[in-house]
Amino acid sequence: MKKRILTLAILLCACSVPESKEMRIELLLDWKAQMEHAGFFVAAEMGYYEREGIKVEILEGSGAPTTAQLVGNGTYKLGVSSGSATVIARNKGIPVVSLAVINQHSPVVVYSLARKDLTTPEQLVGKRIGVNIGGTKHREFQALLNKLGISEDDIQLIGMTESSPASLLADQVDAMLGYTEDQPVTVELRGERVNRIALSDHGIDLYSTNIIVNESFLREKSDLVRRFLKASLEGWVYAITHPDEAVAAYAAERPESDQTFNRANFAQLIPILGSPEVTRHGFGIQMEDRWQNTQDILFDLGMIETRVEVLTLFTNDFR
């Protein structure tokens, strides 16, 4: 009898132990993990997610459009996208919402060796430009040419993957399209001086990397989303103000990565994470006019057929 009572007492105690409140979230990146995602790794390293009762698994993606599709159909609930991919997804009826913009400016640049002395878009007329024809960077470049009234026929476009600056270094092209924190940095680490023509400096300034959420999940798990976003943005703010620690946090997860490149990469990334709006309102802020501008550029390029109501694209309510 005593044994039965003892067993019952143990069972009752076991039942009374509260379940762990830690929630698991899979965050699907837009691409392979890089320093462009450092803030999330910092948030994990610093314990910000754990403090909010969340365990975050950071998963590598295969492109922002694919991530937007997978978050929209509910395969994943949260992801990292791009401004253009988010707008295009909403235009197709894919239910994703932007929670915060990380890259406040487009990272697309036309980069060249400094000895070529190419510093303005007008100087690109007649020059050989390496470009992935039809890719995102090419489409933004087309928007730049359209804005400046320069015909694409006046540019010698050389089709390539843009994954390597080898053609630039071999003088097979005069300039290439790339992301300011990526390919040009590779050239600089070889000891070459580089000029960058930032498309964002000439009116083609789409919102870039952003955090997206499945719309239904946002309604059903709003408190969880709020806690996730709070921890993530704190991670990003800490990363920006402590870049060496950000590199270390990323290296801890990706020890095979090139630390010299990571430091140079992040130094180029930090300026495009800020904006006057961020200074006034805080990291991750989204502005209606900036989203409208992003949508207008995509519409003018024929990348979307109609414009959606811009306020359906984003929310600042969870920052």
Key words describing this protein structure:
five-stranded mixed sheet; 14 helices; globular; D-Maltodextrin-Binding Protein, domain 2; 2 domains; alpha/beta; 319 residues; single chain
Please characterize this protein's 3D structure.
The protein is α/β, with parallel strands linked by helices and 319 residues long. It contains 14 helices and 10 strands. α4 (64-72) packs across α5, α10 (222-241) packs across α11 (243-253) and α11 packs across α12 (259-273).
CATH topology of the largest domain: D-Maltodextrin-Binding Protein, domain 2
- The CATH homologous superfamily of the largest domain corresponds to Periplasmic binding protein-like II
Helix content: 40-55%
By DSSP (H or I, 4+ residues per run), the number of helices equals 14
The total strand number stands at: 10
Uncertain segments of ≥5 residues (pLDDT<50)?
1-20
Task: Give the number of domains.
Answer: 2
Strand content: 15-25%
